[in-house]
Amino acid sequence: MARPTLIAAPRRPTRQIHVGTVAVGGGAPISVQSMTITKTADVEGTLAQIYALASAGADIVRCTCNEEEAAEGLAHIVPRSPVPIVADIHFHHEMALAALEAGVQGLRLNPGNLRKEAEIKQVAQEAKDRGVPIRIGVNAGSLHPELYKRFGGATPEALVESAKMELAYFAEVDFDDVKISVKASSVPLMIEAYRLASETFDHPLHLGVTEAGPPLVKGTAGIGTLLAEGIGDTIRYSLTADPVEEVRAGRQLLEAMGLRERKSVDLIACPSCGRAEIDVIGVARAAQEALESRQLPIQVAVMGCVVNGPGEARQADLGIAAGRRRGHLFIKGKIVRVVPEDEMVAALVEEAEKLVAEGIDARLAAADAGAEAEAEADRRMLLEAKGEDANHSAQKVELIRKTIEESHETPGPAPGPPR
Ligand code: SF4
User: What is the pLDDT of residues 351-385, one digit of tens each?
Assistant: First the structure.
């Protein structure tokens, strides 16, 4: 069930680092990251969230290490985590040292608020001794004040300079096991900053739009643009939502762009129109909910009518179209079963599982005899009942013409006295 892959610029070559068992950069698959929103000191709660993130497709998970109890929590979390853990460090270098002691597989340092040269070098030396990589996580919102002043704001050059300065400190202790991020909440700024970072460094780049809020638009615009240019080795699709949602969004983005092998279902649905025989939005949502927890790497279509649905979605591996209170189940545009309308979603899920287990040819061979003929009869009856013009546009145009003509014929109210 191969799909076309992204026609994009070749991926920019970067050196490879390892966050635990996950390779980042150097041609490795683009990994998906997320961050827990629990208190790290709450070991069981944090582990439950890490497991949820991992099963949604996260390759790496970051936890804050902002206090001693968080570092102690990490010592219990890391050995039980199904994915490598990165400790997020702001302000306090001793938290970085404590996280390394706890066994984390990566650190994220914010150069905007960890500014003492001696402390940065101490952390880098300790990370080097333990073979743990560090992300230099520059953020436009917490840029070093001196750089802000020198560059006249959080410009792409200022963000990249911040990463350069940190790298220079690391170089003094001969440490370069590094990935870099230059995030901003402004999409144009982060795109320009990452383009410049990609020209400046050969370290792997961690992409993200920070403080992106709840809508999915910013992450897709920023991360998607850069990925299409071949920039980026690992992503965090930040959302103000359950972190599981951001992992799903990140994976879906990579899968949609052909940059990661499809693990989950790709649901497509028609936009609906006057022909729709069902509530397409409701059925599509129900199908998405029923299918997304299953690991079914196929494209599934939900189409509002049997007149055009199977033809319009003939590229989909599997689909269902509605008509005359029944659902026409089709594989690659060929009708295989006709089911009652209230069984559409259940039939779709059942067939999706069989399709993945048995393959397209086997499922086409198992099609119900007579399904095609039954479906064709429904289609013809609908065409006869609704005609080619299901939106009734011809009648609407006629009505508009009449309304205008009548308004011309009817004399308007007599003009009132001048005011
Ligand atoms: S013609 Fe049918 S399949 Fe196409 S948008 Fe309208 S309802 Fe959906």
Answer: 999 999 999 999 999 999 999 999 999 888 888 87
Q: Residues 54-71: pLDDT tens digits?
A: 988 999 999 999 999 999
Compute the distance between CA of residue 22 and CA of residue 197 in angstroms, rounded to an integer.
22
The residue written with tokens 């269902």 in the block is 320
Place of tokens 């005359």: 324
**Backbone φ and ψ of 160, nearest 5°:** -70, -35
Closest ligand 1 atom, CA of 277? 7
Distance CA 240, CA 35 (A): 11
Task: Determine if ligand 1 sits within 6 Å of the CB of residue 273.
Answer: yes
CA distance 184 to 181: 10
270 has pLDDT over 70: yes
**CA 336 – ligand 1 centroid, Å:** 20
pLDDT of residue 389: 59
pTM as predicted: 0.78
CA of 276 to the centre of ligand 1 (A): 6
Distance in Å, CA 386 to ligand 1 centroid: 13
Cross-strand bridge partners of residue 115: none
Angle between helices 68-80 and 93-102 (to 10 degrees): 30
